[in-house]
Each structure stands twice: as C-alpha cells, then as structure tokens.
Design goal:
By secondary structure, the chain is α+β, with helices and mostly antiparallel strands. Helix content is 17%, strand content 42%. Strands 1, 2, 3, 4, 5, 6, 7, 8 and 9 form a nine-stranded antiparallel beta sheet that branches. The chain is globular and about 60 Å long.
C-alpha cells in the first residue's frame, strides 16, 4: 500500500448537483490517514464537493510499472470532504515540499482552497485474487482479505 503513496496525484470521483458522477484528478498530500487537496473555485469538482462532500478517490499503480494491466495495484477510498476555512499549515508545508515553492506560492494568492478528505472505507487490490476491504478503526486503516470462490469461468454463448 505504501508504494501507492508515491503517486503524486489522486483520481477522484465527485457528484454533480444533478446526481451524475464526475471524475477528475488532483495533486494531494497525506498526513497520517487524512488526504489534503488544494483546488481552485473554477474547477467543477470544487463545487461538487461544496454541494456534496462525498468523494471517492483512487491511487493506482502507474501503467509503466504494472506487470499486468488488468491487475494494477490500486486503492479506492470513500471519503468525506471538508473545505477548510483556514489553511492546515502542516499540509501546506508538505505541498511546498512535494510540488515546490515556485508552484505553490502563486496558487495561494489565487482562488484555491484546501479540502481535507477523511477516509470512511475502501478497498485495496494488489492483483488477481488479492483484494482486501479497508475499514477505518480509531483513525487507522484496517485491512481484511476478501475471500471466497474467486474468479469463475462462465459458459459463453456465441452469437451468430
């Protein structure tokens, strides 16, 4: 799971006012089990999060590093987003460290706000037959392997 945190961006799925799913991505920083994003008011996902704080995020192994594209290591988390009224200074310092002062300083002067994403549950997939549910217990991620019969072959009907 730790290798996924080397990804510098997260994929995120938000919900429009009309209830439609919307997908995007953004750079992030992580402090303990909280994720922080710094996004512009002009971004559609900004308004989605203000109107509906439920968000799903995904960290996924880079395609170039994957042995099998069908089984890329990935973690999805269902989170609650909270727009911060004041900047989390520790998160801000991490943004500057990870993305550079030259990049972050101008953004601070623009219409960007910081959101805290608090995971509620999720799933970790490390390959075929290697999935675990993620539950948050006392602020910590607890993994439980998903067991069962595994992948099943289906009889396919050929259409003419």
């Amino acid at each position: 799971m730790e290798e996924l945190y080397n990804q510098r961006t997260i994929m995120m799925s938000t919900v429009t006012k009309g209830g439609m799913p919307a997908i995007s991505y953004t750079p992030y920083v992580k402090i303990e089990n909280e994720f922080y994003i710094f996004i512009s008011e002009t971004a559609e996902h900004y308004h989605h999060l203000v109107n509906n704080p439920q968000i799903a995020i995904m960290l996924i192994e880079d395609e170039k590093d994957a042995k099998i594209l069908f089984a890329r290591t990935r973690m999805t988390l269902n989170c609650k987003a909270k727009k911060l009224e004041t900047m989390n200074e520790a998160a801000w310092d991490l943004f500057k460290e990870q993305y550079g002062e030259k990049m972050m300083a101008p953004l601070k002067e623009l219409d960007f706000d910081m959101f805290q994403l608090t995971p509620e549950n999720g799933r970790l997939v490390k390959g075929f037959g290697q999935a675990s549910t993620i539950q948050i217990v006392n602020g910590e991620m607890v993994l439980t392997p998903i067991t069962g019969e595994g992948h099943k072959k289906r009889n396919k009907v050929q259409l003419n």
